UniProtKB/TrEMBL annotation:
The chain crosses the membrane at residues 74-98, 142-164. Keywords: Membrane, Transmembrane, Transmembrane helix. It comes from the Eukaryota. This is Uncharacterized protein.
């Protein structure tokens, strides 16, 4: 029943493709259709085609470990945790708008206690500016969330007050 020439029991003409990287490409090119029924509809015809029908595959972009490239700041955490305990975190987060963000001062004159000692002063200033911009963005979000919450509470209070007055 099976051929004795192969260990799998399949004849040489029935052998499965090997796991070599090029083996699957040969089959995928051979199985692709030579013409597409949709091509004449969208204005593509056989004249405009190139001989190669394999798609170009590019490397995916390199992703960072976090979702964005902005630094993690205190105002970001205050905004996010403000949804758990609304007023204190959003109030403190909004107060960050009024506080200056300064480079940490060294406790002594030793260069090992300088903030980010491996960076040049220009790089430290650039990092500080980026952090301050991110901090201000999240502090503004805290202020907006606090304002929306206060407006929501006031409108519910006015609605309840008007409802009680109409029942009297």
């Amino acid at each position: 029943m099976f051929s004795e020439s192969s260990p799998s029991g399949l004849a040489e003409s029935q052998q499965l493709p090997s796991r070599a990287p090029g083996a699957y490409r040969q089959f995928s090119v051979a199985l692709q259709p030579t013409s597409d029924a949709v091509d004449p509809i969208f204005g593509r015809d056989e004249i405009g085609r190139t001989g190669d029908t394999t798609p170009y595959i590019e490397e995916p972009p390199a992703y960072s470990s976090s979702g964005s490239n902005e630094p993690v700041t205190l105002a970001m955490y205050l905004f996010k945790f403000g949804f758990c305990d609304i007023l204190p975190f959003w109030i403190v987060g909004a107060c960050i708008l009024f506080s200056p963000l300064r480079q940490p001062q060294p406790s002594s004159g030793a260069p090992s206690t300088v903030w980010l000692p491996e960076k040049t002063p220009a790089e430290r200033e650039e990092i500080l500016q980026k952090m301050r911009g991110t901090e201000i963005k999240w502090a503004k979000r805290c202020l907006i969330a606090l304002g929306i919450f206060i407006i929501l509470i006031l409108s519910v209070g006015v609605g309840v007050g008007v409802g009680i007055e109409r029942r009297r």
